[in-house]
């Protein structure tokens, strides 16, 4: 029994070495941070609980919703995991699921595993969780508001995860930006509906049978910094995408950029910062390219993270 | 000489208010083989969870003379080998070796001794070839035997078994009964299988609605039709 | 007994590859895929050499040359992600379809991506096929992957089958009630989704309750906060020599291109 590879599991070869390295750096950082954040959460029960939930999500991905024409949609589960146990625990759970899918089934590549974990584990968990929490704050504490928040969180998480994947493919030169992103977005706008519907169905069931379980996710650690991490990741990817430094095919991206008149608006200051698209004192283009992308991502990430910390201190 | 297991007026209610045990009093001497029977919901599984401190109620529970408290939990858990109803819950390691080694390893024993105990335990349940097998590939009967091995490797004083023959086909059931006959430990088992009780256990305890309602020689109890029917049981 | 052999990718055997230390195999697989990724587009000879390497591994593992080949097309659908390359990369035109021009550079890049992916999948497939999952787990611990994470993966793998079985039972129960009149199934997408969601919710609760029972079983056997395991065997010279040979091979493949 093997379900068809989901459009979000990027195989090896489709991401360039530079992009893959950034993906791994981000994934390792996210997992390390998640391990720290979840350490005291549930005591000794933590590991069997997260492992069993990971097993359940893996198996739940096989429960399909027939959509007609012989095809069906499936749950990915990042949002559900984040709502149940909090976003950091969800990162560990989804990383386990995605990692084992890559190793055992070659569902997603090994070099691409870094960004696959980010797209399917970190981005979905944090976007979904963030949207869920904010919507619940706005809509109140009723069952219906929880379901609506879960639905929107589920859908948005798929969209943003997919757009991120599209951007990563574009930066790698596998697909032009103006094809990759819309294609990913359209496919996952539909798949996102299924994610939303199944997530809502599951939440409704849990709410009616064991409402106390939903409280665990509510009191999970690091709520505000989680939101900032989500925003930070999204920002980092967008910046990296529009930075000509990152594209191995400047012609293609400039064509797109010129078409949409981005060159003048956004890229000018970046050109000045790093002339000729490389870090000045590093001659080799490949290394310089990698370092530039990594540097850009790190800078944005750090800025957002520091803002988050300052805000947390102000709130404390 | 201490009793292996001594329960005095044990009361327990779950957090949601449901009162499961209403004052259970019971003693088991070393070497005894005792069966616990009664309808579902009588509190049998709840009672068992008190024997190694997973649940703690009002009243006293002593294992080999030691009262069960936070400080004594380590020793208690090494003395009471609790075998759960569903072997899947108990076989949680990737391989049989790791599952059977889990207990001794966590007792802090050195590796050579751990390996010896694993071999002995698997030999005792007649599954020595299963060392590197993977738990989820095994049949229910095999899993139940390995589950017993996982507690035997801790050299417990008493084996507490929750419905050991449930879900087994006749052949596996017969194999398990024969296995239990060969084990020297004190055994306390809950079961619905009254033929199993008659076959293996000289003493029977009947539990209903959180209380012990009968405790005596198996022959006498299993021939008392009125008593059996009063507590939802049928004469085998 | 209902049973899905979902994750049983291990094909038991006693070949050279089966006997290799799992740590060496993991490192070797990663190095190979990194080499494939780092090679530039259009490096046909190195690609062919890499494929020969994966073929050699397949033969040495006594799984047959076609084992990986047959399963390697699993990533093919994703090729669609790169399909626009021949049309969008500017370069020397080699064909025309309607108003779209196919360029040489675009085609080279497209084919290169496909080949790199295909070759990577073939070597990646060898790892679970020749290594027991339990061995992969302790190799992960030795390779410094944090113990809590390995613990999660270990429990996940162990209980995958249990939940897959339960999911299968739920699916069969649903199928048994999915009669159609005139072959047209009814119910809106929303309704179907809710049913599926209910099944998922059901599984969630079973997951929680099972994990409680597992935890009880663990503390019954003395568990406190960290899972203790037996020490794994040490690396032999045999393993190290093979790793060395593999590295030389990969380095040569890379050098051929970059010289």
Throw out a few tags for this protein.
heterotrimer; A: 316 residues; Arp2/3 complex 21 kDa subunit ARPC3; 12 helices; 73% helix; globular; B: 236 residues; alpha/beta; Rossmann fold; six-stranded mixed β-sheet; four-stranded antiparallel β-sheet; 36% helix
Describe the structure.
With 316 residues, chain A is mainly alpha-helical. Helices cover 73% and strands 2% of the residues of chain A. In chain A, helix 6 runs parallel beside helix 9. Chain B is globular and about 50 Å long. In chain B, helix 4 (96-106) runs parallel beside helix 6 (140-152), helix 5 (111-124) packs across helix 6 and helix 6 runs parallel beside helix 7. Chain B is an alpha/beta fold and 236 residues long. Chain B has helices at residues 44-48, 73-79, 87-90, 96-106, 111-124, 140-152, 170-182, 194-200, 218-223, 225-230, and strands spanning 5-13, 19-28, 33-37, 58-63, 66-67, 80-83, 158-162, 186-190, 203-208, 211-217. By secondary structure, chain C is mostly helical. Chain C starts with 15 loop residues before the first helix and ends with a helix. The interface between A and C is large, with 86 and 90 residues.
SSE layout and pairing:
The complex is a heterotrimer of chains A (316), B (236) and C (259).
Chain A: H1 17-38, H2 46-60, E1 65-68, E2 71-73, H3 78-85, H4 87-105, H5 113-139, H6 143-171, H7 177-209, H8 214-218, H9 223-242, H10 250-259, H11 262-273, H12 285-315
Antiparallel strand pairs in A: 1-2
Chain B: E1 5-13, E2 19-28, E3 33-37, H1 44-48, E4 58-63, E5 66-67, H2 73-79, E6 80-83, H3 87-90, H4 96-106, H5 111-124, H6 140-152, E7 158-162, H7 170-182, E8 186-190, H8 194-200, E9 203-208, E10 211-217, H9 218-223, H10 225-230
Helix pairs in contact in B: 4-5, 4-6, 5-6, 6-7
Chain C: H1 16-19, H2 22-38, H3 44-60, H4 66-71, H5 85-88, E1 93-97, E2 100-103, H6 104-130, H7 133-142, H8 147-176, H9 189-220, H10 237-258
């Amino acid at each position: 029994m093997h379900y068809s590879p989901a459009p979000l599991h990027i195989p090896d070869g489709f991401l360039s070495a530079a992009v893959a390295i950034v993906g791994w750096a981000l994934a390792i950082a996210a997992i390390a941070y998640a391990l720290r954040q979840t350490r005291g959460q549930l005591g000794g029960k933590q590991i069997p609980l997260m492992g069993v939930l990971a097993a359940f999500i893996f198996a739940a991905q096989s429960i399909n919703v027939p959509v007609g024409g012989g095809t069906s949609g499936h749950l990915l589960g990042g949002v559900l995991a984040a709502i149940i146990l909090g976003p950091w625990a969800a990162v560990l759970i989804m990383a386990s699921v995605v990692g084992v899918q890559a190793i055992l089934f070659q569902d997603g590549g090994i070099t691409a595993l870094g960004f696959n974990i980010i797209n399917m584990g970190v981005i979905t968990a944090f976007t979904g969780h963030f949207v869920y929490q904010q919507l619940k704050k706005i809509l109140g504490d009723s069952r219906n508001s929880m379901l609506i928040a879960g639905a929107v969180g589920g859908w948005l998480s798929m969209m943003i995860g997919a757009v991120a994947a599209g951007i990563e493919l574009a930066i790698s030169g596998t697909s032009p930006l103006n094809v990759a992103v819309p294609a990913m977005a359209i496919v996952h706008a539909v798949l996102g509906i299924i994610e939303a519907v199944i997530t809502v169905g599951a939440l409704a069931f849990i709410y009616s049978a064991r409402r106390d379980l939903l409280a665990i996710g509510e009191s999970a650690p690091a709520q505000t910094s989680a939101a900032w991490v989500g925003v930070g990741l999204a920002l980092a990817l967008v910046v990296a995408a529009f930075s000509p430094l990152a594209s191995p095919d400047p012609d293609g991206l400039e064509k797109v950029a010129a078409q949409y008149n981005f060159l003048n608006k956004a890229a000018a200051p970046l050109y000045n910062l790093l002339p000729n698209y490389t870090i000045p004192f590093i001659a080799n283009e490949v290394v310089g390219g990698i370092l530039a992308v990594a540097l850009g991502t790190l800078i944005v990430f750090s800025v957002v993270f520091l803002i988050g910390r300052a805000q947390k201190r102000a709130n404390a | 000489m201490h009793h292996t297991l001594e329960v005095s007026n044990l009361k327990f209610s779950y957090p949601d208010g449901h009162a499961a045990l209403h004052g259970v009093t019971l003693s088991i001497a070393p070497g005894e083989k005792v069966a616990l029977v009664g309808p579902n919901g009588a509190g049998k599984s709840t009672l068992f969870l008190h024997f190694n401190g997973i649940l703690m109620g009002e009243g006293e529970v002593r294992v080999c003379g030691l009262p069960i408290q936070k400080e004594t939990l380590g020793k208690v858990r090494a003395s009471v080998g609790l075998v759960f109803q569903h072997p899947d819950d108990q076989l949680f390691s990737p391989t049989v070796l790791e599952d059977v080694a889990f207990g001794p390893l966590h007792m802090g024993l050195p590796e050579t001794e751990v390996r010896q105990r694993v071999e002995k335990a698997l030999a005792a349940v007649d599954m020595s070839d299963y060392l590197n097998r993977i738990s989820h590939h095994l049949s229910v009967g095999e899993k139940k035997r390995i589950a017993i091995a996982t507690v035997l490797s801790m050299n417990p004083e008493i084996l507490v078994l929750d419905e050991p023959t449930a879900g087994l086909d006749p052949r596996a059931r017969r194999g398990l009964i024969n296995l239990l006959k060969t084990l020297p430990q004190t055994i306390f088992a809950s079961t619905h299988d009254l033929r199993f009780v008659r076959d293996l256990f000289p003493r029977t305890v009947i539990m209903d609605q959180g209380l012990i309602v009968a405790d005596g020689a198996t022959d006498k109890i299993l021939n008392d039709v009125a008593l059996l029917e009063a507590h939802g049981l049928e004469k085998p | 007994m209902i049973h899905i052999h979902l994750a049983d990718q291990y094909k038991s055997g006693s070949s050279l590859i089966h006997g290799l230390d799992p740590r060496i195999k993991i490192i070797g697989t990663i190095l190979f895929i990194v080499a494939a990724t780092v090679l530039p587009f259009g490096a046909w000879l190195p690609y062919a050499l890499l494929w020969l390497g994966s073929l050699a591994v397949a033969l040495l593992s006594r799984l047959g040359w076609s084992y990986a080949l047959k399963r390697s097309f699993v990533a093919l659908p994703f090729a669609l992600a790169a399909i626009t390359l021949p049309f969008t990369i500017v370069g020397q035109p080699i064909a025309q379809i309607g108003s779209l021009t196919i360029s040489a550079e675009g085609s080279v890049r497209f084919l290169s991506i496909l080949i790199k992916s295909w070759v990577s999948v073939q070597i990646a497939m060898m790892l679970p096929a020749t290594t027991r999952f339990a061995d992969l787990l302790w190799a992960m611990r030795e390779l410094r992957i944090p113990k809590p994470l390995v613990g999660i993966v270990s429990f996940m793998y162990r209980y995958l089958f249990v939940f897959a079985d339960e999911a299968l039972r739920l699916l069969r129960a649903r199928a048994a009630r999915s009669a159609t009149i005139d072959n047209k199934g009814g119910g809106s997408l929303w309704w179907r989704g809710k049913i599926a969601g209910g099944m998922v919710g059901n599984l969630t609760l079973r997951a929680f309750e099972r994990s409680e029972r597992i935890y009880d079983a663990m503390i019954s056997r003395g568990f406190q906060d960290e899972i203790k395991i037996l020490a794994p065997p040490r690396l032999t010279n045999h393993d190290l020599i093979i790793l060395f040979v593999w590295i030389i091979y990969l380095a040569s493949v890379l050098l051929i291109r970059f010289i």
